[in-house]
Each structure stands twice: as C-alpha cells, then as structure tokens.
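Lab notebook page, bench 4
Experiment: in silico fold of construct C2
Operator: M.H.
Input chain length: 228 residues
Purpose: comparison with the prior construct
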Amino acid sequence: MIKIENLKKIYHDNGLPVKALDNISLEFQKGEFTVIAGSSGSGKTTLLNLIGALDKPTEGKILFEGEDLSLKSKSQLAELRLYKLGFVFQAYNLIPVLTAIENVEFTMILMKIPEKERRERAYKILEELNVANLADKKPNEMSGGEQQRVAVARAIVTNPSVVLADEPTANLDSHTGSQLMDLMEKLNRDRDITFIFSTHDPIVIERGRRHITLRDGKVVSDTSKCLQ
C-alpha cells in the first residue's frame, strides 16, 4: 500500500542542516497496525508527516498505492488527504466553535456530501464510538478522552485507507489511552483500516503488531509480532 524509498529530510536550524530522516526505506501493507517508536527528535513525526503528504522529502520518494507522491500537484495531494487518509493528532485539533457532530461533518462538507447524508453518517460513527451523547457539545465541554474519540470519528467517517495517528494518547491518562487503543484495534479489525502510529507511549507500543524504531532519523529495528 505504501512504499518508501531512500527517504531523506533535511531541515535548517539557524542556517545549519539538521538531518531529520536519513535514507529510510520501508513498506506498509493493507491492514497493518504499526507503531513507529523512538525518543523525541528521532524523526517519527517527520516520517508520519511525509507519509501523510503534509510535507515533502528532501530526497527519495513515497509511493501510495503505486503512485509517486512527488509527481502529484498540490490539489492532487489535497484530494489524497481528503479521500484516502485520516489524521489523529495528540492535540485533537477539533474546531472549537463547532459541536462534535459538526466537527465530524466538516471533512464531508469539503467532499460536497449532501447535508442529510453527512449528518446521518456523522451520527452513526459517533454512535459506533460510543460518543453520540456528545453530538451537540463543543470541545470545551468534553474531556480529553471524549475529544480524542470525536477526533477519531472525524478521521474515519470518510472510510480512509490509512489512519495516521501522531502521539494519540499523549494527553490522556493510562485508562483512557487503553480504551482509545481498544477502539482503534476494533476499527482495524472490522474495517481493515491501516493504522500507523508515531509514539513513545508504552500503551500504544505494546498494542502494535509491527514495531519500527527510529534513532537519529534512521531505522534501527523493524519487527513484527507472531499472531497466534
């Protein structure tokens, strides 16, 4: 589904080059539940941003379903993010002035889905994630765990092929973090959505079926659990 070839990303800090990713090559298959782990500054968020077409590599390329992202225009990349990718961030990134159901509907508005259909789909997904009672509440009326569930609802309501989750449990207590991971494992099983996490949270790491560890922008290990 995703193929990364000789990926490099260099930033400049006060004019000095900083190598965030150093010649990474990886492949991700449909239906994976993969954790990218590493300490702060290891390059894991940079890698997720590149996979999600939120940034461009300095060198190398990313193939998504066989298509080279570097050959796509800005509008084509925006379309890819809209229709194929879902994003879950540690800061939730809900729109403060919108209710939960309006936040979930927002992406579908961009997709020009008719109002009746998008309202039905948004409510159904909130029900599936056990937060339908929050439909008319705004983010400041929800707990962190509730906000993150709404953020997951928004990420998956468009039936994306891949969900990219950057430190999704960082602002949650361990119990709420475990509940969120239960939810995402269920979505992975039931909908065959590919999940790729960036994290250093042990709760997330222990749930991953594949573990990629980064250090100083390089892959230092890539292992998979044997499923019984």
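Observations: The beta strands are 2-13, 16-28, 33-37, 59-64, 67-68, 85-89, 162-166, 194-199, 210-215, 218-224. The mean pLDDT is 92.
Next step: discuss at group meeting.
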